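User: Um, any thoughts?
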Amino acid sequence: MESLQGGGCRQLRESGGYIRETASLLTDMAVRDLSSSYRDAAGGYVWLFAKPAVTVLVYYIVFQVFFGMSETNSGAPYALWFLSGMLPWIFFAETLGGGTGCYQEYSCLVKKIRFPVRLIPIVKVFSGLCVHLFFLAFFSAVSVFCNHFMRISLVFLIYAVLCLCVYTGLLVSVFSLIRAFFRDVSDLIGLLLQAGIWMVPILWDFSRVPGPYRMVFAWNPLFHVIQGYRRGLGCGGEELFRLSGILFWLHCILLACCTELAYRKLIHHLADVL
C-alpha cells in the first residue's frame, strides 16, 4: 500500500512538473512572439495596441456618428455595447489570421529539434490574449467613467474568455496544420473573416432580427462567444444563451475530434513540407 501511495505521489509530482514546464514554455514563447512582431519598428509594442484601437475607432465613428446608432435595447451606452462585441472579434480575427502561418514562422522548431509542435498554435493564442486582456482592462476603465462598472459579471466574462480561447485555439490548430500543405487556406480565411463579422451581432443589435430567423444564429459558435461577452460586460446577450452554449460545446468537441484526426494523419509529414 505504501509503495502504491508513493508511486501515485511520484506521478502527481511528475505531472505537476510537466504542467509547470509547459506553462513556463508557453509564456516565454508568447512574450517572444509579441516582441518579435515589431522588433525592428520604431514604435515597438505601440503597434500591437494601435492597430486594434484604430479598427474600433473607425467602426465606432461610422456607426455612431454617421449612422446615428446611439441607443441599444440593453440600456448600455452604445460605445460600451459596441466594444463588448468588437473586442472578442478583434482577438479572434487577428489570432486566426496571423496564427495560420505559425508552422512556417517556427519552422526551425519543427525541422531541426524535437519539440511539441502542437504547442506552437497555442503560443499565438497566448500572445493574442495578452493584448486582449489589455483592452478588457481599458473597457473596465471606460465603464467606470460611464457608471457602468457594477453591471459587469466577472463569472460570465471569464467563461466568455475561456470559450473564445478554446474555439480560437482549435481553429488555429487545425488551419495552421492544413495551411502547411495547402497555402490557399490563408486566402480562404481572409474571405471568411471579411464576411464573418456580419454573421454575428457585433455591429448590429440581435434584438432587431425577426423571430423566425433567430434560431439560425444559435448554430454559429461565435454567436455564443459574443453573447457571452455582452452578458459578462453588462451589455445584454441573454437571447438564446443556453441553447447556443450547448451547440457551442458540441461544435468544439466535434472540432477537437477533427483536429486530432488531422494531426494523426499529417503531423509526421509536417517537417518534410516546410
Summary: Residues 1-14 have pLDDT under 50 and may be disordered.
